[in-house]
């Protein structure tokens, strides 16, 4: 009894795979797109840093819920710091 996987050839299969093509496309991305992604990453990191800084320096009575709860929340990209600034600070 033979399986379909036993009958396939491996010659050239890796070279033509969609994953390899996607990787080549990502590497060959336009410099402007790469710069925009880099800038977005820097802004996201700064946003998270500011949320952590604010959490560390804010009195616990001014924070909704326990302060340690907000640490993993802030680690969620974009959504975490925004949630902290919108819902974590008592106004």
UniProtKB/TrEMBL annotation:
Localization, UniProt: Cell membrane
Membrane topology: Multi-pass membrane protein
Residue intervals of the Cardiolipin synthase N-terminal domain: 47-88
UniProt keyword terms in alphabetical order: Cell membrane, Membrane, Transmembrane, Transmembrane helix
Pfam families: PLDc_N
Top-level taxon: Bacteria
Keyword Transport: no
Transmembrane segments: 35-56, 68-87
Segments for region (Disordered): 1-20
InterPro entries xrefs: CLS_N
DNA-binding listed as a keyword: no
UniProt name for this protein: PLD nuclease N-terminal domain-containing protein
